[in-house]
Amino acid sequence: MKLKKIIGSALVAISLSMPAFAQQGQPDQVAQLAQMVGLSDDQQTEIRGIISEMEGELSELRQDAQGLQRELQGEIKADYDEDNIRSHAEKLGDVTGKIAALSALMQAKVDAVFTKEQREELDQKMQQMQQQMQRQMQQRQMQQSQ
Fold this sequence. Notes:
about 150 residues, mainly alpha, 6 helices, about 85% helix, flat
């Protein structure tokens, strides 16, 4: 049961933490979630507010992480400086930790908007999706082995 909740929550968090994709022609994730579990207009508004509130900081941190990753990659050379590599890696780890914490916080805030019934329905639908993905993977494996 905990695994289902983790997977369901992770999928919700991932889909909600990427509104930039929604702006690039992808379907509205909150609307999809609303359709899946029957969110009220007030719940949708509240979830959109949570995302809006946190997305600016998350976006900035993601950009910082990308820059730090480039800097770290730039240190990979024959005449490397171990202290610089460790320093860049530590900074990247700090930023990545902040991203993880904010993403988890956003996920928790969104989860708090759901009713118990909606959480249960989401868990059930996520389990169904997981089972469907497993069946598809098994079918592909069977086709590849033939």
